[in-house]
Amino acid sequence: MAKKKKADEGGGGAPAWMATFSDLMNLLLCFFVLLFSMSSVDAEKYEQLVASLNSSFSVLPAGGSAIVDTGELVGMGISQLNKMDVMFTAMLNTGGNEQDKKEEKEKTAEEQYEEKALAESEQMAEDIKKELEQLGIQDQVEVEFNAQYVLLTLNGALLFDSGQSEVKQEALPLIDKIGSILEDYGQNIIEIEGHTDNVPISKNSRYGSNDVLSTFRALSVTNRLRSRFNLNPAHIKYSGRGEYVPVADNSTAEGRARNRRVEVKIYNSMSSST
User: Which of 163, 182, 268, 271 is nearest to 224 (CA)?
Assistant: First the structure.
């Protein structure tokens, strides 16, 4: 009898598993309510979205503003939002293609500019070579060109005595013939550059370094051109580059002779206007 009374005292109420089951049902109910609230359609917001797309991108025809119970936008009997992700992807791709086309167009314009500038320099170089031949100095002047200018290179040994910056008397006719050619390009920028080899200047020289010597040599040629030819002084520049821009090996006598030079750069019209 004592055991039966103890069992009766422990009974009564719902089993323990029912409480756990109830909590689970409540959680599931909240979960489905949340899903339903997220999936419900706000007709007013859909109206605003479609109107914005229609006015900004013209992807939807006018009048497509009816929303059915399923949440789909229907206009003229056709569902228009079923493949909205496809339309957005297409718009994004179109924007990327337009950017690519713009960059390609800019690149093409730059290439066309470069080609036009190079063609002008090439024509200038051909004309100058013909003039050099007519003047009989084609063997004393090297002619090169790029998209910016035509380069005339004069051997420094023909123009100057060793360690000196004054143009030799016998070299003045060569400078004058170059000047007569430059008059054809009086409106172009013309730059005179002096260059030396890497042999140090003598301590007894009045020039402190190869930089100074090269600058004075470029100035001597510039002064001759300015004083005797119809050139715009504002368009003529000169500079000394010293030993720092060699065109040959300074370890040989032939290389040092090539490095002792004066360069005349005649910029084409496209480079002169920048």
Answer: 182
| Radius of gyration, alpha carbons of the chain | 43
pLDDT of residue 64: 47
| pTM for this prediction | 0.62
- Residue-wise pLDDT for 103-116, tens only, equals 777 778 888 999 99
CA distances, 106 to each of 14, 68, 102, 114, 226 (Å): 80, 48, 6, 12, 40
238 beta partners: 192
**Cβ–Cβ contacts within 10 Å for residue 270, how many?**
16
Rounded-to-integer distance, Cα 29 and Cα 20, Å: 14
What value does the mean pLDDT of the chain take?
A: 81
- Residue 211: which of 197, 231, 224 has the closest Cα? 197
d(CA 71, CA 185): 75
Question: How many whole angstroms separate alpha carbon 107 and alpha carbon 115?
Answer: 12
Place of tokens 């060699």: 246
Following DSSP, what letter does each residue of 144-171 receive, concatenated? EE-SSEEEEEEEHHHH--TT--SPPGGG
pLDDT, tens digit (0-9, with 9 covering 90-100), for 202-218: 876 789 899 999 999 99
